[in-house]
């Protein structure tokens, strides 16, 4: 069992990641490729992905075990591929060595290439960077738009749960096998370990590629990361209907505005992002406000708009 110990400061620092992390998803997808007796939802995806997995990406299989607990320097919480590649390249040498040693202690063979990675050998790191880029392009890039849309819908739903029921209920409800014992979050796991957050906080990250037990990554700096299976896994996103009843009800532009207002924005932000006029944004936000789907607040010269709980429920229920 994993036991995550919270202080009051940690409870105040529980957040949902603002967007899916591409390199974390790549690590988890690489793990799912290797899982025997995989969840039936992923079996056809696994067979197809194994056939098409690029040869240049195969070094990742040496680093990432089926448990998903690969080296943390390989899975930064980046917003994009290039940002993530920069974070991998700038990983401190001591952190790289410690993570590679941990992975090898838990069952991965220490190959000559891994030994060279630990020494920060230039050619070994070129191979790694090429594997990451090729793996992303082969596994994630074709489906990234779907993953991102589904992620924001789930994030809106979790945010609504947090607002209505509080942190304890939201954390206990992210997946099965999670419960509270006073200020300790107990998680069913194959390993027996205590994790003390010690004021760093916790970031929640649902994964469309993951169908196994929860994974917690304790990075040297910043909050710990709690990865759990998304409500809708990738194969179901691929097979879902493209029909959007919310767009049929509100129209595509208002639906796009409502989706954008999961996070607070001004009319200028919306107009720039959706490439429409500010007067058009004003008309649409007025209609959404009258329908009680958004609220608006003036701060100085700017008017900020954001979804109401009803608007969040509507967007969370829309197909990706």
UniProtKB/TrEMBL annotation:
Family matches, as PROSITE patterns: HTH_ARSR_2 (PS50987)
Domain HTH arsR-type: 234-320
Record carries keyword Cell inner membrane: no
Gene3D superfamilies hit by this protein: Winged helix-like DNA-binding domain superfamily/Winged helix DNA-binding domain (1.10.10.10)
Keyword terms of this UniProt record: DNA-binding, Transcription, Transcription regulation
An example Gene Ontology molecular-function term: DNA binding
Keyword Transmembrane on entry: no
PANTHER family associated with the record: ARSENICAL RESISTANCE OPERON REPRESSOR ARSR-RELATED (PTHR43132), HTH-TYPE TRANSCRIPTIONAL REGULATOR KMTR (PTHR43132:SF8)
Protein's name according to its UniProt entry: HTH arsR-type domain-containing protein
Organism encoding this protein: Streptomyces smaragdinus
């Amino acid at each position: 069992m994993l036991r995550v110990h919270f202080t009051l400061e940690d409870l105040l620092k529980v957040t949902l990641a603002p967007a899916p992390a591409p390199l974390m998803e790549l690590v988890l997808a690489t793990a799912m490729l290797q899982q025997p007796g995989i969840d039936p939802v992923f079996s056809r995806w696994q067979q197809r992905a194994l056939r098409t997995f690029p040869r240049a990406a195969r070094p990742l299989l040496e680093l990432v075990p089926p448990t998903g607990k690969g080296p943390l320097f390989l899975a930064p919480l980046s917003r994009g591929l290039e940002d993530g590649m920069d974070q991998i390249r700038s990983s401190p040498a001591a952190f790289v060595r410690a993570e590679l040693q941990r992975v090898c202690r838990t069952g991965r063979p220490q190959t000559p290439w891994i030994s060279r990675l630990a020494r920060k050998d230039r050619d070994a790191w070129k191979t790694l960077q090429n594997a990451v880029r090729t793996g992303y392009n082969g596994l994630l890039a074709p489906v990234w738009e779907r993953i991102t849309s589904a992620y924001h819908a789930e994030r809106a739903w979790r945010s609504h749960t947090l607002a209505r029921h509080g942190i304890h209920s939201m954390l206990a409800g992210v997946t099965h096998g999670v419960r509270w014992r006073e200020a300790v979050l107990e998680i069913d796991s194959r390993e027996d370990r205590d994790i003390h957050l010690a004021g760093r906080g916790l970031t929640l990250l649902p994964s469309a590629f993951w169908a196994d037990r929860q994974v917690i990554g304790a990075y040297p700096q910043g909050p710990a990361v709690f990865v759990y299976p998304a409500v809708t896994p990738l194969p179901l996103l691929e097979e879902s209907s493209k029909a959007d009843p919310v767009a049929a009800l509100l129209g595509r532009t208002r639906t796009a505005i409502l989706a954008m207002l999961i996070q607070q924005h001004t009319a200028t932000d919306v107009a720039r992002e959706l490439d429409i006029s500010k007067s058009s944004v004003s008309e649409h936000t007025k209609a959404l406000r009258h329908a009680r789907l958004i609220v608006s607040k003036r701060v100085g010269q700017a008017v900020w708009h954001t979804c109401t709980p009803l608007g969040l429920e509507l967007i969370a229920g829309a197909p990706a």
